[in-house]
Amino acid sequence: MVNCYVDKGENWPAIAAYQKPNTIGHRDSEQRLKDALACGAKDSTLVDTPNNYTINGKFYKMFRNCMADRGYIRFTSAECGYMNPKWDKGKCNL
């Protein structure tokens, strides 16, 4: 029997997928966390982000829309790769 499983290591945390276009893979993680908290995240895990909410008088349907207003793009897990340097795609960072 052949086993094709390859342990590529840990996935990037969700917050690592939010990047600014001019600093992809090298985003200031402290500023990104401040922006995420300002957009309603409770912590860096982004497990419990708000939907259908208002911040400073502006309505947001989803958390990612608030981050987009702050200049962030969001990569998928497949676009990020893994934290293991061998499988990292260079787009996400902590």
What report would you give on this structure?
The protein has 94 residues and is an alpha+beta fold. It is built from 3 helices and 4 strands; from the N terminus they run βαββαβα. It has one domain (14-80). The strands form 2 sheets. The chain has a two-stranded antiparallel ribbon. The radius of gyration is 15 Å and the shape is elongated.
Question: Descriptors for this entry?
Answer:
94 residues, alpha+beta, two-stranded antiparallel ribbon, 3 helices, 15% strand
Q: Termini, distance in Å?
A: 38 Å
> Kindly state the mean pLDDT as a whole number?
93
Number of strands: 4
The helix tally amounts to 3
Walk across the major sheet and give the strand order.
1-4
Biggest sheet statistics: 2 strands, antiparallel
Task: Give the gist of this structure.
It contains 3 helices and 4 strands. With 94 residues, it is of the alpha+beta class. The protein has one domain (14-80).
Helix and strand layout, with pairings?
Blueprint: E1 18-19, H1 29-38, E2 51-55, E3 58-62, H2 63-69, E4 73-74, H3 77-80
Antiparallel strand pairs: 1-4, 2-3
